[in-house]
Amino acid sequence: MKLLPAITVATLLVTSPALAIVGNAPASNDAIGRSVVTIVGSRGNFCSGALIAPKLVLTAGHCVQPGVDYRIVEYDRDRKPVLETVRRVAVHPSFSAQSIQAHRATADVALLELDAPAKERSPVALGVPQPPLAAGNAFTVAGIGVATPGDGKSGGVVRAASLVATGKPGTLQIRLVDPATLGAKPGLGGCTGDSGGPAFETQAQAQVLIGVISWSTGPNLADGCGGMTGVTPLTLYRDWIAQTARQWDMPLGGN
């Protein structure tokens, strides 16, 4: 089991966008795809995130670090990358870097405030997983990470994958696998650069953001990608997200 490390920003910016989410997942141009953003750091790494208000991005806590400047990458009509300024960052106060490195559940969520509304992205509804959480429940994950492990040139375009919960999902962690492989063989799942990407659940015939991607494994829990995707659900953290959004004068719908 591992975190989803970032690949270099230079590779991302000079490469024509290609795939994301390993396992030949299709490109996502619907509401899910339009919500996903690329987050790049001044130390040369990048993660995924999701727009939850015109100037507010939700991502993973382990994607942001003290002393690092962050930007959002948007693409103009000619598909040229444009860097947008991140005004400030907040990480959940209960997030533990030590826990995430040891693959233990923690408050792996963070918020980024943009200087200006994202031009090419659309906010999505925020929620929590519907009870009862059980193995077999369906979720969709999305991100801009690599399609081929170790190949930075295979990342860039938003892709989404439909996965199912396995084991004993709960309010601290949900483990997802490709229903076609059940984690035993290479299949769909998060990979490098997908950290912080959104996990969605269909609720009342609409896609609701219910968690963020935190880590991945290869088949049979080996190192790598395409086996299991770990998601941090928002059940325990949605109130903090809503409170922070209000403090930043960006109240979320329904809050």
Mean pLDDT: 86
Strand order of the largest sheet: 8-9-10-13-12-11
User: Number of helical segments?
Assistant: 4
Shape: globular
Flag low-confidence runs: 5-20
Q: What's the count of strands?
A: 13
Main sheet specs: 6 strands, antiparallel, barrel
Series of secondary-structure elements, N-terminal to C-terminal: EHHEEEEEHEEEEEEEH
Strand-residue fraction?
A: 25-35%
Produce the secondary structure layout.
Layout: E1 2-3, H1 9-14, H2 31-35, E2 36-41, E3 46-53, E4 56-59, E5 70-75, E6 81-91, H3 97-101, E7 110-114, E8 138-143, E9 159-166, E10 174-177, E11 198-203, E12 206-216, E13 228-233, H4 238-247
Q: Can you put this structure into words, describing what you see?
A:
The protein has 255 residues and is mainly beta. 10% of the residues lie in helices and 33% in strands. The chain is built from 4 helices and 13 strands. It has a 6-stranded antiparallel beta barrel with strand order 8-9-10-13-12-11. It has a 6-stranded antiparallel β-barrel with strand order 2-3-4-7-6-5. Strand 9 and strand 10 form a beta hairpin. The longest helix has 10 residues, at 238-247. The radius of gyration is 16 Å and the shape is globular. The model is unreliable at 5-20 (pLDDT under 50).
